[in-house]
Structures are given as C-alpha cells and as structure tokens.
Amino acid sequence: MTERCQCMLKCTVCRSYQLSAESIAKDLQTSCGLQISTTTVHRELHAMGFHGRAAASKPSITKCNAKRWMQ
User: Fold this and answer.
1) Do 15 and 45 form a contact (C-beta atoms < 8 A)?
2) Does a structural domain hold residue 9?
3) Do residues 41 and 9 touch, judged by C-beta distance below 8 A?
4) Is 58 a residue whose pLDDT tops 80?
5) Of 17, 23, 62, 71, which has the fewest Cβ atoms less than 10 A away?
6) Residue 38's Cα: distance from chain center in Å?
7) Which pLDDT does position 16 carry in this prediction?
8) Which InterPro entries does this entry report, sorted A to Z (predicted)?
9) In a domain, 58, yes or no
C-alpha cells in the first residue's frame, strides 16, 4: 500500500467512522486504482491506531431497573 493510499484511508475513516472495511476497500480501489483487500484495510487501520468496536446497546437505566440489577 502506497503512502498516498494510506493518507486517503486515514482521511476516509476520519470523515465517517461507521463505514465497513468492505466499503472502504471499494472506495480505495476506485480512487487509487489498486486491488486492496479488506484484510489489508483492516491491518493498516489497526497499525494507524484505529481499533473497531461494536457499540453496546444499553437501555436507559431508570431507578426501578437499577434496583433490580443491584439485587
């Protein structure tokens, strides 16, 4: 992966964090003209310090729910 592609990858991720690795790879393939796999995208993002985590869905905790959890 070239330095230019790495810069484009970082800018793409900074613009929107919700993109999947597949959509980022397709975007880079059209812009850079290189065959880039999703594994490469994942590895490069991990090296840059981007560690993907799924957001935890938590219901709003009311006083009643808090008491139940404490029991």
Assistant:
1) no
2) yes
3) yes
4) no
5) 71
6) 12
7) 81
8) Transposase_Tc1-like
9) no
DSSP state of 2: -
In a domain, 33, yes or no: yes
| Structural domains in the chain (count) | 1
The verdict on residue 55 lying in a domain is: no
Does the pLDDT value for residue 71 go beyond 80?
no
Structure tokens at 61: 């905790």
Give the number of other Cβ atoms within 10 Å of residue 24's Cβ.
21
CB atoms within 10 A of CB 38: 14
Q: Which residues contact 31 (CB under 8 A, 6 or more apart)?
A: 8
Supply the pTM of this predicted model.
0.65
- Compute the distance between CA of residue 29 and CA of residue 40 in angstroms, rounded to an integer: 12
Please give the residue range of the domain that contains residue 7: 3-48
